[in-house]
Amino acid sequence: MRNKILLGIGALFVVLVGVYSRDLIGLYYLVDTFLTTTKAYEREVGTWPQIVDGCNGCHGAQGSSQHQRYPSLAGQPTAYVTAQLHGFANGKRLYPTMGPLAMTLNEDEIKHVADYYARQLPVENRWFVPDPSLRERGQKLVAAGACVACHGENLMGQVTFPRLAGQGVEYLQAQLDAFAEGRRVDPSGSMNTIAAALSSDDRKALSHYLAAFAKPAK
């Protein structure tokens, strides 16, 4: 009797595997993906949850924004992100959501956020197609303005100067307009002077060029 029961259970198991094999395989891959992703997260970021998790909604996963209005933080220099968070916290730089968020961070948390995004690999702005004439005009303006002197080779940023390459076009134009109108202040005064000397069309052209700019392949 016992052997018959065991044989029956074995037969039932075989039938269930045959019927639900695809679902079981799918479940296996789901669990495997979850475990792999979790290990990668903990290796790169730390145990869940982390401060940077709250940044994903606007700035995208790993700091690569998919929205033209919000900046990508991936690859931004540590010193730049640190300075901007301090600026938001003390009211020298204004934005409705960033001010209150920055004020909640202590120095260790600011360092953690800045270091994390500096380690992330920047990606191209694949979600934007520039106007060809504006892009060409913007390229000439960048060359004439020697932007690489401050923003580094390939406009990827350095020290306290931000990465411009591949940022959202709406974000870029909004910042240039803010500098030109004095609503955002560069401590050195350089960006305010440069932006104020540009026409509205020039600032638009610069935005189109920079948003579509990608680091040349080696």
Summarize, please.
The chain is 60% helix and 0% strand. With 218 residues, it is mainly alpha-helical.
Q: Key features?
A:
218 residues, mainly alpha, 10 helices, elongated
Q: In which range does the helix fraction lie?
A: 55-70%
Low-confidence spans: pLDDT under 50, at least 5 residues? 27-31
What is the overall shape? elongated
How many strand elements? Answer: 0
Structural class: mainly alpha
Mind summarizing the main beta sheet?
A: none
- Gap between N and C termini: 73 Å
N-to-C order of helices and strands: HHHHHHHHHH
Number of helices: 10
The percent range for strand residues is: under 5%
Look at the structure and give the mean pLDDT.
Answer: 86
Report Rg: 25 Å
Any chance you could write out the topology, listing elements then pairs?
Elements: H1 2-44, H2 56-59, H3 78-90, H4 98-103, H5 107-119, H6 132-145, H7 148-151, H8 169-181, H9 190-196, H10 200-212
Helix pairs in contact: 3-5, 6-10, 8-9, 8-10
Describe the fold and architecture.
- The protein has 218 residues and is mainly alpha-helical.
- Helices cover 60% and strands 0% of the residues.
- The chain is built from ten helices and no strands.
- It has helices spanning 2-44, 56-59, 78-90, 98-103, 107-119, 132-145, 148-151, 169-181, 190-196, 200-212.
- Helix 3 packs antiparallel against helix 5, helix 8 crosses helix 9 and helix 8 runs antiparallel to helix 10 (200-212).
- It is elongated, with a radius of gyration of 25 Å.
- The model is unreliable at 27-31 (pLDDT under 50).
